[in-house]
Design goal:
Blueprint lengths: L7 H13 L4 H7 L4 H13 L41 E2 L13 E5 L2 E5 L5 H14 L2
Antiparallel strand pairs: 1-2, 2-3
GO biological process, one term: DNA transposition
Protein name: Transposase
GO molecular function: sequence-specific DNA binding; transposase activity
Length: about 140
């Protein structure tokens, strides 16, 4: 089956788009589902018709994109902190009448100060506190 005929004006537009894309001719053709041989025939015919303002090719060589290695990573929480385990956590002193609902919780653990926004996931908070405890702050 033959492809539909593309006018010389459309060929010129596609060649210019390709040459201004920064890709090699081959890469651009592959991305736009155009056979590279067809593309180069367009260039040849337009030059034969006197179209001399076609930019030079950025290169005919095709470099395959660098492959990215995919690695599966499994996370296992081997030592979860039970919620009932007491921690030596001292809340920062606040006056009850100055405390609004939107204010975050502020904790001090030794020399470590932690501000916890409202709505923090309890598991994330427990994990964070376990790490703080292990660091011995």
């Amino acid at each position: 089956m033959r492809s539909k005929r593309i006018s010389a004006e459309e060929q010129y537009r596609l060649i210019m788009e390709c040459r201004q894309s920064g890709l090699t001719d081959h890469q651009w053709c592959v991305e736009h589902d155009i056979k590279p041989g067809t593309f180069y025939n367009w260039v040849k015919r337009l030059r034969q018709k006197g179209c001399v303002d076609l930019p030079a090719s950025t290169g005919h060589s095709y470099r395959a994109p660098e492959s990215q290695e995919v690695v599966r990573v499994d996370f296992h929480d081997t030592d979860p902190l039970p919620y009932e385990q007491p921690l030596n956590v001292i809340p920062v002193a606040t006056e009850r009448n100055n405390l609004s609902v939107a204010e975050p919780m502020k904790l001090s653990v030794g020399s470590f100060h932690l501000t916890i926004p409202n709505g923090t996931d309890p598991q994330l908070l427990a994990q964070t506190l376990r790490i703080v405890k292990e660091l011995g702050c």
